[in-house]
Amino acid sequence: MIADDHPIFRAGLRAVLENAGHEVVAEAVNGAEVIERVERMVLDGTTPDVVLMDLRMPVIDGVTATRRLCAMANPVRVLVLTTFETNSAILRAI
Question: Distance (Å, rounded) from C-alpha 37 to C-alpha 48?
């Protein structure tokens, strides 16, 4: 699953992943959508193997969304992709 609020970045990342043989099962434009989609996927039995998460997104940021995903009964793995220049946001995500 790709979580980023920039459509061009999501499209480019999807193309790279799919060309490498990976399946992108969903996309989300903000942290709230990530949480909602993952929760729905868990109920459907199609939990993503990993969420590629941007930290800076509207509605709910990637740090908060990551914490919520990691707090689930069966936590979802999250790989943070960000252009943040400061360590504070990155450390909060860890």
Answer: 10
What CATH number did the domain enclosing 49 receive? Answer: 3.40.50.2300
Say how far apart CA 21 and CA 17 lie, in whole Å. 7
For 3, the token pair is 């979580």
Domain count, the chain: 1
The secondary structure of residue 37, as a DSSP letter, is H
Question: Which residues are registered as beta bridge partners of 80?
Answer: 53
Whether residue 88 is predicted with pLDDT greater than 90 in this model: the reply is no
**H or E element in which residue 3 lies:** strand 2-3
Three-class secondary structure of residue 2 per DSSP? strand
What range does the domain containing 33 cover?
2-93
Residue whose entry in the numeric block shows the structure tokens 């990637």: 62
* Joined tokens for residue 89: 């946001």
Q: What is the pTM of this model?
A: 0.87
